[in-house]
Design a protein that fits this description.
By secondary structure, the chain is α+β, with helices and mostly antiparallel strands. The chain has four domains: about 40 residues; about 230 residues, Thrombin, subunit H (Beta Barrel), CATH 2.40.10; about 90 residues, Pdz3 Domain (Roll), CATH 2.30.42.10; about 90 residues, PDZ domain (Pdz3 Domain), CATH 2.30.42.10. It is about 30% helix and about 30% strand. It is built from eleven helices and 31 strands. Strands 1, 4, 5, 6, 7, 8, 9 and 10 form an eight-stranded antiparallel beta sheet that branches. The longest helix has about 70 residues.
Length: about 550
């Protein structure tokens, strides 16, 4: 019995202890659960904080990344990777076939085949005297490269000048500068593929320093015209030419100014010269004259003409004739043999602050009409002294050179709208332009006079005629009038040499004959293709 009671007591104690342990464990478990819940809540809170921070951080990095793409290369990675990122900016920009963006490689591929190397040969060496420019600068109109082995002081002797030209049609018409080919006895044109041709002068214009020449070939690469009026200061451009006889050279820069007048072309016998150059910092050196100024679409926007330099080489200033003026001059030379020059018939002056105050003008826009020519286009239409010309056919005018270029795009007989400010009131006046001869009609160049000397009229040989006769050079006799050659030369006779000098052009033949004194020896081919040598005295 006692043992039974003792056993029950021990069991009750064990049971009590077990209950105490259970409660203790239950309390501990409860504490554990609360701790875990608190930790979970804390973790979730931190996740939210870190999530917000992460989003902000990502946004910042994206913003920094975009800014880095626009402004500079990434600081990490190899040079090749950095160049690759940069190349994305310089790669071809798809523009619906309209342009090449900033891919200078593509622009160069388009333009270089259409730019030629010109070598002009002279019977008499002309010295190149630089013209004085503003601010003590020298501006050399004959800045094309010359043979350094020549003695420039010699009054006569073989000479050569080199420049550039731009093919503008697939059948061989080429635009260049007048000073590159002026008075040349032989004009040699070398294509980008090294093929060589002898060019014929179609026409020249001293007022714009432009010339149109032609080679006898077909299916040539040519450059399309752009719109120089749309060109903006700061835009990228390429200068393509042959500086220092280094053929097919491309340099890059920007349009640094427009409407530049550098008093380069004007002289007593060239008072109607037009100077409204595009200025560029693309490197232009001796030999670039007549070359192309090209926009990023691969379009021709100017003909490189001059440099401003105290050394005769590039110092950061180059000047090009705007292509919109070039187009008009080339069309005139092709259709009429000479430029159809229209004039407004006014003397004008740019408006300064002082002039504006004297004339009572509210702003400095436009150009002031100082005088109106008696019987000229402007007077006939009603333009008056004191008017301020502001626009020509909607194009804003703010300089003398700008007005000259704009009028230079038209021909005698064309009607233009001239907007003037007359005492504060805007007026639009329609003006019918006249030519330098005071007429509103067009006229053809007298080719007979240009191609004739001592009673003989010459003509150029075609490629087919040269091939048929087996000749590489020569000019043919088109007509023979009164003079020393009458009865001595027949129409159709081809002159290949005069006094042992090869003849390549009409200008070449005229130049030699004009300087010949006494007897001359003429070699060539008769109409039937037989060789002939004729000696005669010019005094007979």
């Amino acid at each position: 019995m006692f043992n039974t009671i003792l056993s029950r007591k021990v069991n009750r104690q064990k049971l009590f202890k077990a209950k105490l342990r259970y409660k203790s464990n239950q309390k501990k478990i409860g504490t554990s659960f609360e701790s875990i819940k608190k930790r979970i809540n804390y973790t979730n809170s931190m996740k939210k904080v870190f999530g917000i921070f992460a989003i902000a951080l990502c946004g910042g990095l994206v913003a920094l990344g975009i800014n880095g793409v626009v402004n500079k290369f990434s600081d990490s990675g190899s040079f090749e990777e950095m160049q690759s990122k940069h190349a994305k900016f310089a790669s071809l920009i798809e523009d619906g076939g309209k342009g090449y963006g900033f891919d200078f490689v593509k622009v160069s591929e388009v333009s270089t085949p259409a730019v030629v190397h010109i070598k002009s040969h002279f019977e008499q060496v002309k010295s190149s005297n630089p013209h004085g420019g503003g601010n003590g600068q020298q501006i050399d109109p004959f800045e094309f490269f010359r043979d350094h082995g020549m003695d420039f002081d010699m009054p006569r002797g073989p000479g050569m000048a080199a420049g550039s030209g731009v093919i503008i049609t697939q059948d061989g018409y080429i635009v260049t500068n007048n000073h590159v080919v002026d008075n040349a006895s032989k004009i040699e044109v070398i294509l980008n593929n090294k093929r060589t041709y002898i060019a014929e002068v179609i026409g020249v214009d001293k007022t714009t320093d432009l010339a149109l020449i032609k080679i006898d070939e077909k299916n040539l690469n040519f450059m399309s015209f752009g719109n120089s009026d749309e060109a903006k200061v700061g835009q990228w451009v390429l200068a393509v030419g042959n500086p220092m006889n280094l053929t097919s050279t491309v340099t890059a820069g920007i349009i640094s100014a427009k409407g530049r007048s550098i008093d380069l072309l004007r002289s007593e016998d060239n008072q109607y010269a037009i100077e409204n150059f595009i200025q560029t910092d693309a490197a232009i050196n001796p030999g670039n004259s007549g070359g192309a100024l090209v926009n990023v679409k691969g379009e021709l926007i100017g003909i490189n003409t001059a440099i401003a330099s105290q050394t005769g080489s590039y110092t950061g200033y180059g000047f090009a004739v705007p292509v919109n003026l070039v187009k008009k001059v080339m069309d005139d030379l092709l259709k009429f043999g000479k430029v159809q020059r229209a004039v407004l018939g006014v003397a004008i002056q740019e408006i300064t602050q002082e002039i504006a105050e004297i004339e009572g003008l509210k702003d400095l826009n436009g150009v002031l009409v100082q005088e109106v020519s008696e019987g000229g286009s402007a007077q006939k239409a009603g333009v008056k002294k004191g008017d301020v010309i502001q626009k020509i056919n909607g194009v804003a005018i703010n300089s003398v050179s700008g007005l000259q270029e704009e009028i230079g795009k038209f021909r005698p007989g064309d009607k233009i709208n001239v907007q003037v400010n007359r005492k504060g009131e805007a007026k639009v006046i329609q003006v019918t332009l006249k030519g330098l001869d005071g007429k509103e009609s067009l006229s053809m160049a007298d080719k007979n006079d240009e191609n004739t000397i001592k009673g003989v009229e010459f003509g150029n040989l075609s490629k087919e005629e040269k091939d048929q006769l087996g000749l590489k050079n020569g000019v043919k006799v088109v007509a023979v009038g009164e003079g020393p050659f009458k009865g001595k030369l027949q129409v159709g006779f081809v002159i290949t040499k005069i006094d042992k000098q090869a003849i390549y052009s009409i200008q070449n033949a005229k130049s030699i004959l004009s300087q010949a004194d006494g007897a001359v020896l003429i070699e060539g081919k008769n109409v039937d293709g037989t060789d002939a040598v004729i000696g005669l005295k010019l005094g007979e």
